[in-house]
Input
Amino acid sequence: MRVALFVTCVTDTLYPGTGRATLAVLERLGVEVDFPLAQSCCGQPQFNTGYRRETEPLVRRFAEVFRGYDHIVTPSGSCAAMVRENHPRIAARAFGGRRADEVAGAASRTYELSEFLVDVLGVTDVGAYYPHTVTYHPTCHGLRTLGLGDRPRRLLENVRGLELVELPGARECCGFGGTFAVKNAAVSAAMGADKARGIEGTGAEAVCAVDNSCLMHIGGTLARRGSAVRPVHLAEILASTDGGTATDGTAGGTAGGTREAAR
Amino acid sequence: MSGGTFLGMPAFPEAAAAAVRDTRLRGNLRHATGTIRAKRARAVAELPDWAGLRAAGAAIKDRTLRHLDHYLERLEEAVTAAGGTVHWAADAAEANRIVTQLVRATGESEVVKVKSMATQEIGLNQALEAAGIRAYETDLAELIVQLGDDLPSHILVPAIHRNRGEIRDIFRSEMGRWGRPAPEDLSEEPAELAEAARLHLREKFLRAKVGISGANFMVAETGTLVVVESEGNGRMCLTLPETLISVVGIEKVVPTWRDLEVFLQLLPRSSTAERMNPYTSMWTGAADAEGADGPRDFHLVLLDNGRTDALADTVGRQALRCIRCSACLNVCPVYERAGGHAYGSAYPGPIGAILTPQLRGTVTELDASLPYASSLCGACYEVCPVAIDIPQVLVHLRERVVEGGEATVRGRRTTIRPARGHAAERAAMRAARWVFEHPAALRAGQRLASRTRRLHPRRLPGPGRAWTASRELPEVPAESFRDWWLRERGNGSGGRKGREDQTDQTGQAEQTERAGRAEGGGDR
Output
């Protein structure tokens, strides 16, 4: 089984700990993971803002970079949704023919992390240990486009030491929405503030999601409010074990503490 | 006194920002949408075949739209055969002219109205007022909007932005100027408010000689029109006057009665969360004989007003499936905070954000801002009873705004120019695309950001201020994932695609490979 990590541009640049955590979880489960360096961005920011033509070379690049891999795993619901839902449409219109088929093929082999763990590996207990109270925010594209359902929750429920608390209004968007966050900043901020209040009300130490872009908005909003709740990606919780986090060798444990641990 | 106008409203972000600051408005909307949201979910969950009904609704609409000319002609024949008169209106101005002339021909200067989105869309009340004809809205919420010299802010609940106290104040101060006044001691109890409206409206129903309506559905095979409502005011307006004029969008036609079976299940559960609609009025043509019930004179004004342009757009045309249930408004987190007025048209919320730019174009700043009035969370698509993929159409229309391109405008294929004000964004998107096509450049940028990370400001100037006004910036890490991988796994385990620029997509594989090798070699 040839597995490639599609780390996403946001995680690569801003949250490398999530990339290391994804790798750590997969390798702990015996999966050999490759990281093709020619990968870059799925094109979602451009596409969702209306620049479809700017995404065409990125769509083509994605299919070429991940050619030959059985599975492409990414720690992002929205990037996985972009690839699966929109890459085939973009390619059908822009290229057609064999290239479009290749894009559709790559799209069908792309999985968000929790999907890959639960559906392909058939694992819900990854042997993680995370002694913290956590609430889970299902991000929109994972929830509605991919239909992740309870996969992330099932993974969290099997983490030892973790107490999962319900987030009221969990299914409501956090207000990030890519360029929406700056184009409609007032509404985005109002949605973010409501989400942050909901999170704070749970008493959780950390809010978990499968998308770093949404967590950047939620975490930035929480931090501005002076909240103690930390954003943490699902992969980082799943990578944490009794011996600390496998992601960077630091003695992990503090909620979200693995996010930006220096090397 | 015929209510405000959406003309000259600011772009969505400004109007929405003002609405967000209005705490009373936000309270009213949160309460109202939250309640109906939960009720709809329960009503829908009761039907085990909801997904099948939804697919059937979408399929019926799609098939009808594909053969729209055929079904409209069948409808015209059937309505005419039943004693009605069919008029065709290409745009709002023509529809208003037709209706005004029809009312004038009766010699009347007053009409009663059934709640209708089409007449809101064309601004009929204002047109009638200019011709000296007063139109009385008879739907409770429309009455509140009309008395308050206000604009509707919701498809189903036009006064959703008002609470009981505000409604009582409007009734007490305004009802007397339009007819029977409200009692002096009117309280804000719903039953008392409804009774005041009932007594006020009863006088209008009994006096009116002309009724004006829209329709939820038109059945092509028999020429039957269908109005679905909850208060009985529609039944009054459709049966008591001598003349009935119905203004209906051409996309409202369905082929057969059988098709209604699907929509009369989908619509009430999606809109009011009811199992069955309370007042479903159906009529075919005009009452011919003496003593027969209903209007003697029936006119159907079929309204295009941009619909055939939308129909020519293979992605955008799905918006014409809409049955105006407003489930997408009720579930939309943006609508809940921005309110309906910010959308600047009779059609607020997610459906308005895809319908208005198709009906009116994307020329004005407001109309060009509507496709961006969404975080693309997809909740609207999830609840839509006719499966309109609203996020897909939003993104499609965003492309029209920023890139321009081919579109049909007033029946003609036209090349639309990109909207103004996107030059900097377009340049940034192109630059980003170039960087993403050259991962070595991406890595260089990441390294620069990492090295300078202690120097990054906490608050950004320019467009970035919109981010840092309410959120902290993420801290840039000391090392990107890519650099970590190169450092830790770079020797050999990078796999067969270990070099960043090794793809053949630029058609210069060899050249980029050499560049990539040089770059990679320098790292190790």
Notes: Confidence is low (pLDDT under 50) at residues 492-497, 504-524 of chain B.
